[in-house]
Amino acid sequence: MKRILVVGEINVDLVFKHCHALPTPGREVLADDFCMTPGSSSMICAMGLARLGNPVAFRGKLGADNWGAYCLDALRNAGIDITAVQPDATLRTGVTVSLSTPQDRALVTFPGAIAVLRADEVDDALLANADHLHVSSYYLQRALRPDCRQLFARAHAAGLSTSLDPGFDPQQTWASDLLDTLTEVDLFLPNELELAAITGRDGVLAGLRALDNGRTQTVVKRGQLGCASLDQGQLLEVPAFAVDPVDSTGAGDSFDAGFLHAWLRGQTLHDCMRWGSACGSLSTRRTGGTAGQASVSEVDALLANAP
Q1: 264, 2 in Cβ contact below 8 A?
Q2: Average pLDDT over the chain, rounded to whole?
Q3: Parallel, antiparallel, or unpaired: how do β-strands 234-238 and 227-231 relate?
Q4: Binning pLDDT at 50, 70 and 90, where does residue 107 land?
Q5: Separation in Å, CA 261 to CA 83, 236, 290, 296
């Protein structure tokens, strides 16, 4: 099995489910349910990979606080190597509050330690003990971002393959430095909104062709529409799988885990996309990003019964 190093952000998700309305200034609303779950794109992807049986190590930063202790326990209990995750008393762990109604949801995030990890803090020893490097939340990781391309280049020089999930840009500038970073990325995993914003192109096919740099395989996540990619210049689409969804939090990160699980085992692009779609779909069965993540046997059963 390929050893995977995930470099990224750590935070807690506080999920208020079935809010009677989204709050407005001066008003209080009630929620029918609440849970606290591991959050952040990087954590959710790492835990999904570990759930599928992959050896995973994590490099990130968090505070020496109760939120940080909760995240460390979650990573440790998932079987993830957290040797490179050391609590820092000068930092505060990030927290996201998710408020959902049947029609929509709103997120409020305190970034905390998310923004401070630098590329030079991912040392050569960490890369030497891995076969693949995955980075999530390019735009949130402000200290990592300027040298992210160099980090990927170092990984390639050490013999690793690489992948990147950009995440949303809270500033909505979608600066073009990402395109330069992609020259050192093997696998790029945006969602449909991110693809359109990064490329400035309407339509999935136009966006995929705009990112076709001769090296990077881009796979775009489309929610209930499944996913799409270019296969020898032609559009390849794979549908999502029918489940009874409870919460879509982190479904794209679980997609990443499923796709990478298959991709690192040399499966075809089409089969990797099916694995990604299966893991993304199955993750929506429970509240939060990690509680419903799939095992290999669950994915196998879903794929075996799919058309």
Answers
A1: yes
A2: 94
A3: antiparallel
A4: confident
A5: 22, 19, 16, 10
Question: What residue ranges do the domains of the chain occupy?
Answer: 8-293
Task: Give the residue among 237, 245, 178, 250 at the shortest CA–CA distance from 15.
Answer: 250
Q: Tell me the torsion sign for CA atoms 42, 45, 51, 57.
A: negative
How far does Cα 188 stand from its chain's mean position? 11
Q: Provide the H-helix boundaries in the chain.
A: 41-51, 66-77, 124-128, 148-157, 177-181, 192-199, 204-210, 251-263, 269-282, 296-305
Give the Cα separation of 143 and 110 in Å (integer).
16
Q: Terminal CA-to-CA distance of the chain, rounded, Å?
A: 29
Answer yes or no: pTM beyond 0.70. yes
Token digits for 52? 């599928």
Q: Report pLDDT digits (tens) over 135-193.
A: 999 999 999 999 999 999 999 999 999 999 999 998 899 988 999 999 999 999 999 99
Q: What is the pLDDT of residue 230?
A: 98
* CATH class for the domain made up of 8-293: alpha beta
Place of tokens 């991709």: 263
Lookup result for tokens 């693949």: 132
Separation of alpha carbons 55 and 81, rounded Å: 8
Residue-wise pLDDT for 18-63, tens only, equals 899 988 899 999 999 898 999 999 999 999 999 999 999 999 999 9
